[in-house]
Amino acid sequence: MPILTPDIYEDGIDAFVDEVVPTPQERGICPTEYPGTTLRANLGVPHQYGPDPRITTGEQ
Question: Is 49:40 a contact under the CB 8 Å cutoff?
C-alpha cells in the first residue's frame, strides 16, 4: 500500500478525506465503521496502566 501525505495547509486535509479516503472504502480495503471507540480498541491492543512491566522489571 502506498504512503500518502496530504497537503496539511488550506483545504488539503478536507480534500484528502472527501476525495481519497472513499476509494479504498468502496473497494473494501479500509473499513467504514470501527467496533471500538479508541485506536487501542480498534487495533485489539490490551489496556495497560502505568509503565510497561518489561521495562520496569527488566524482562524481555
Answer: no
